[in-house]
Design goal:
Keywords: Coiled coil. Helix content is about 40%, strand content about 20%. By secondary structure, it is an alpha/beta fold. It has one domain. A six-stranded mixed β-sheet has the order 1-2-3-4-5-6. The C terminus is likely disordered.
């Protein structure tokens, strides 16, 4: 279903990907933080916008790494590596992030403000039953975004401990679907950050799926060009009004 709906996963240009991977591997060998930041900045300047966005996310994540494994609590994740991860959905310089609840919500400002992505962070002690219920709730929020803002697709994600699971919510042949598109571990230590070299294409593919599927294009006054978009920071769902599925629609979650 995933490949039928979204085609094959996209990959970063091989030359750029290899340079990113080499930079991370050299960090493991040389332990030179400043050299890594310099290389990532240079790659960011010399890459396409889509590739540059992924490299910028990695550079931001690096600022939150620690030498030893510390307690991975919800607040540390939310204010640290997850906040950096959300930069993956910052598609223009006009994008702003502001706190809201769920844990994170992506706002896009075109002719009117819309929300096309939400996510939540769960601590290590969350029980499986609670996580499953929250996943279902995320699906309902995802579907509500489709109806409320007339979107083709919306993005939802859940970070539990360090595992980030990302879904695209969409409608296929009259059935509402929540399709998992990418799953990976977010780093909290320098050693885990080096392992991100194997996740570069996952970040890249997720960013392009969001860009191509979830951003609503609207005609401007001069023609058929999309309006400039901005993103806004993700929130915690506990304070949101519960999204309700239409009683006449089959929900495939």
């Amino acid at each position: 279903m995933k490949e039928e709906k979204f085609e094959k996963p996209k990959s970063m240009a091989e030359a750029t990907r290899r340079q990113v991977e080499d930079a991370l591997e050299e960090l493991d060998k040389d332990d030179d933080d400043e050299e890594l930041q310099r290389k990532l900045l240079q790659l960011q300047l010399n890459s396409s916008n889509d590739e540059s966005r992924v490299i910028r996310v990695l550079s931001s994540m690096f600022q939150h790494m620690t030498e030893s494994k510390e307690g991975v609590n919800e607040m540390r994740l939310q204010s640290g590596v997850v906040s950096s991860f959300c930069q993956l959905f910052k598609l223009s310089k006009n994008t702003t992030f502001s706190d809201c609840r769920l844990d994170f919500g992506v706002q896009v400002h075109a002719t009117k403000k819309i929300i096309n992505g939400i996510g939540e962070v769960k601590g290590a002690k969350s029980c499986p039953e609670s996580a499953s219920l929250d996943t279902y709730r995320l699906g309902l929020f995802g579907l509500n975004m489709l109806w409320k803002y007339e979107l083709k697709s919306s993005l939802v994600f859940q970070v539990q401990e360090q595992e980030a699971v990302n879904w695209i919510c969409t409608i296929h042949k009259g059935i509402c679907l929540m399709i998992e598109v990418e799953r990976f571990l977010l780093p909290t230590t320098y050693l885990e950050f080096v392992d991100m070299k194997g996740k570069v294409n996952k970040l890249y593919n997720l960013s392009l799926l969001y860009k191509s599927r979830c951003v609503k294009e609207e005609d401007d006054e001069e023609g058929n060009k999309p309006k400039p978009c901005t993103t806004s920071k993700v929130s915690t769902a506990k304070d949101h009004t519960n999204a309700k599925a239409s009683s006449s629609t089959e929900v495939g979650l």
